[in-house]
């Protein structure tokens, strides 16, 4: 099984095969008690069957089926998730006709418009929920209007190196176009690496005075880690700000073992899960949240 075949599987079909049933259905959204966080009393994990993506409101995280499998089973890489999906833990009811069925229902994404970030709902999301200053977000992000299966949506967009858009809004996390890393290079000797652009923006807000001191790499997915190996080799020092979870810690360790110039900086925001959570907590303590 490859990534394309895996992503063609409907998340609700995968969960059903593993014995998970939705607590309720609202239009295209199936709500589950989180299979990532155990002993949940109310359903807070939503699966959008039209876009075939999930979002756990208790975690504030979401993504595609591979992201879910990694979270559910504490896996460190996409290759492990693929093996998990095709291994014995996946019931035999999964067959290639499932892939074909899902492919025919795959959303047809089309970018309608890209504009300056000013939409009130998106500005509220990025400033109130993520704690990022509007001016900072406008410097690196856009608002992207897109269509999926003839329905219109909008989200905060962050461009990657292959021209794809990493998208975030209050209810969805995803990518339109090719998936890739984002590099912001200025010829500096030190580089900082982040999992996603929200953490990158959080760092820029926390250390605005260091804006021009570093180069920046945003992975946009831990699955892109191998793409940065040749890039980070040219720096005197590489600071990692990956998440304080199993996957983030293991990826940090892999990068540290791959090069002597790599340093794990996640202690800075410990015990917070990531830089954005740290920023929000710090802002509230300072009376700005």
UniProtKB/TrEMBL annotation:
<protein>
    <submittedName>
        <fullName>Toprim domain-containing protein</fullName>
    </submittedName>
</protein>
<keyword id="KW-0240">DNA-directed RNA polymerase</keyword>
<keyword id="KW-0639">Primosome</keyword>
<keyword id="KW-0808">Transferase</keyword>
<dbReference type="GO" id="GO:0003677">
    <property type="term" value="F:DNA binding"/>
</dbReference>
<keyword id="KW-0804">Transcription</keyword>
<keyword id="KW-0548">Nucleotidyltransferase</keyword>
<dbReference type="GO" id="GO:1990077">
    <property type="term" value="C:primosome complex"/>
</dbReference>
<dbReference type="GO" id="GO:0000428">
    <property type="term" value="C:DNA-directed RNA polymerase complex"/>
</dbReference>
<feature type="domain" description="Toprim">
    <location>
        <begin position="189"/>
        <end position="264"/>
    </location>
</feature>
<dbReference type="GO" id="GO:0006269">
    <property type="term" value="P:DNA replication, synthesis of primer"/>
</dbReference>
<dbReference type="InterPro" id="IPR036977">
    <property type="entry name" value="DNA_primase_Znf_CHC2"/>
</dbReference>
<keyword id="KW-0235">DNA replication</keyword>
<dbReference type="GO" id="GO:0008270">
    <property type="term" value="F:zinc ion binding"/>
</dbReference>
<dbReference type="InterPro" id="IPR006171">
    <property type="entry name" value="TOPRIM_dom"/>
</dbReference>
<dbReference type="Pfam" id="PF13155">
    <property type="entry name" value="Toprim_2"/>
</dbReference>
<dbReference type="InterPro" id="IPR034154">
    <property type="entry name" value="TOPRIM_DnaG/twinkle"/>
</dbReference>
<dbReference type="GO" id="GO:0016779">
    <property type="term" value="F:nucleotidyltransferase activity"/>
</dbReference>
């Amino acid at each position: 099984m490859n990534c394309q075949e895996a992503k063609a599987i409907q998340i609700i079909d995968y969960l059903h095969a593993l014995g998970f049933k939705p607590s309720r259905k609202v239009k295209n959204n199936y709500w589950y008690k989180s299979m990532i966080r155990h002993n949940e009393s109310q359903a807070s994990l939503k699966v959008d069957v039209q876009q075939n993506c999930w979002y756990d409101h208790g975690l504030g995280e979401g993504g595609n089926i591979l992201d879910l499998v990694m979270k559910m089973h504490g896996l460190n890489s996409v290759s492990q998730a693929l093996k998990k999906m095709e291994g014995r833990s996946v019931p035999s009811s999964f067959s290639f006709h499932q892939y074909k069925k899902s492919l025919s229902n795959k959303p047809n994404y089309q970018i309608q418009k890209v504009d300056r970030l000013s939409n009130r709902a998106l500005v509220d999301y990025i400033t109130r929920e993520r704690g990022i200053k509007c001016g900072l977000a406008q410097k690196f992000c856009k608002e992207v209007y897109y269509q999926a299966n003839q329905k219109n949506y909008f989200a905060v967009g962050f461009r990657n190196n292959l021209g794809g858009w990493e998208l975030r809004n209050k209810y969805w996390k995803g990518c339109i176009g090719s998936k890739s890393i984002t590099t912001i290079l200025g010829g500096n000797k030190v580089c900082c690496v982040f999992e996603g652009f929200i953490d990158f923006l959080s760092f820029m807000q926390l250390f605005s005075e260091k804006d021009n001191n570093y180069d920046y790499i945003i992975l946009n997915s831990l699955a892109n880690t191998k793409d940065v190996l040749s890039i980070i080799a040219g720096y005197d020092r590489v600071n990692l700000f990956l998440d304080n979870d199993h996957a983030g810690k293991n990826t940090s360790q892999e990068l540290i073992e791959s090069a002597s110039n790599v340093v794990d900086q996640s202690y800075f925001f410990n015990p917070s899960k990531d830089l954005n959570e740290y920023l929000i907590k710090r802002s509230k303590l300072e009376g700005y949240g």
